[in-house]
């Protein structure tokens, strides 16, 4: 029987790359996100790569939606072996004093509470099975801050504490918990960040992109596929002794 892997935020970007990478391992991949049409596009790619998709539209900020996700997966597939908490939003891009409480809370609702709700719902069957791998997708932004990114940065850095605590709590049940901190990943989100950074600093977008590339010893941005490859490794038997870590996957932009 193939391994069951669940990826939140699987409709595009890093989430889609994660789903495809686990599909290449022959996994049954549960695809969770809000937009059905994007999940269906990912499902087609999963099938092409040799995996078996299960599409479950889910709003990770809604407790009832998350409960329905957990019940559907458990009833149809049993316990998941790999849970990848990837869902995230960019949040507002503004100085802290201009960020509204609603925008702040909306960022945390997805980036932190969504991780809590999904993990809380999916862990009991994993604990009963006595094994599993939980992977959280964070960010290097707390280590290499950007102007106007306080809500996003704070929400993603909260996942470091969650990862370490959960690793202690779940370890005795045979479950490993790790965090990946990507940085400057090519795609629409970094394009948006670059645009807002250029606007905030009064420079052009090419300058901002060039600065980001120059921060890397490899002189490159990171790809979603490179992040996904790290997740596949962390979920593999080869990483059996790795838990509670914060793994930088950012082309050397941050080395601690």
Q: What value does the Rg take, in angstroms?
A: 18 Å
Helix content: 40-55%
The order of strands across the largest sheet is 3-2-1-4-5-6-7
What's the helix count?
8
> Terminal Cα separation, in Å?
39 Å
- The CATH superfamily appears as NAD(P)-binding Rossmann-like Domain
Largest sheet: 7 strands, parallel
The global form is globular
Structural class by sheet pairing and helices: alpha/beta
* Proportion in β-strands: 5-15%
CATH domain topology: Rossmann fold
Note the run of SSEs as H and E.
EHEHEHEHEHEHHHE
CATH architecture: 3-Layer(aba) Sandwich
Number of domains: 1
Regions with pLDDT < 50 over 5+ consecutive residues? none
In total, the number of strands is 7
CATH class: Alpha Beta
> Mean of residue pLDDT?
95
Structure description:
This protein is of the alpha/beta class and 256 residues long. The protein has helices at residues 13-23, 36-48, 63-77, 101-129, 150-170, 188-201, 205-215, 224-234, and strands at residues 4-8, 28-32, 52-55, 82-85, 132-137, 175-182, 246-249. The protein contains 8 helices and 7 strands. It is globular and about 55 Å long. It starts with a strand and ends in a 7-residue tail after the last strand.
Short recap of the structure:
This protein has 256 residues and is an alpha/beta fold. Helices cover 49% and strands 14% of the residues. Strands 3-2-1-4-5-6-7 form a 7-stranded parallel beta sheet, sandwiched between helices.
């Amino acid at each position: 029987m193939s391994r069951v892997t669940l990826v939140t935020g699987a409709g595009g970007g890093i989430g889609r790359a994660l789903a495809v990478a686990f599909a290449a391992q022959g996994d049954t991949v549960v695809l969770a996100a809000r937009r059905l049409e994007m999940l269906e596009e990912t499902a087609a790619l999963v099938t092409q790569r040799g995996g078996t998709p299960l599409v479950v539209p889910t709003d990770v900020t809604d407790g009832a939606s998350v409960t329905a996700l957990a019940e559907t997966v458990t009833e149809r597939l049993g316990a998941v072996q790999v849970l990848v908490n990837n869902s995230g939003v960019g949040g507002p891009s503004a100085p802290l004093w201009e960020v509204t409480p609603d925008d702040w809370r909306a960022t945390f609702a997805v980036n932190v509470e969504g991780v809590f709700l999904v993990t809380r719902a999916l862990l009991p069957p994993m604990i009963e099975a006595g094994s599993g791998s939980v992977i959280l997708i964070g960010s290097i932004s707390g280590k290499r801050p950007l102007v106007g990114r306080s809500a996003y940065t704070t929400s993603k850095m909260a996942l470091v504490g969650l990862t370490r605590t959960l690793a202690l709590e779940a370890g005795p049940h045979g479950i490993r918990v790790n965090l990946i901190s990507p940085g400057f990943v090519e795609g629409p989100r970094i394009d948006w960040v670059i645009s807002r950074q250029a606007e905030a600093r009064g420079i052009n977008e090419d300058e901002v992109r060039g600065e980001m590339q120059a921060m890397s010893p490899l002189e490159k941005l990171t790809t979603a596929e490179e992040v996904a490859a790290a997740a596949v490794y962390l979920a593999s038997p080869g990483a059996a002794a790795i838990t509670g870590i914060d793994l930088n996957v950012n082309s050397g932009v941050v080395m601690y």
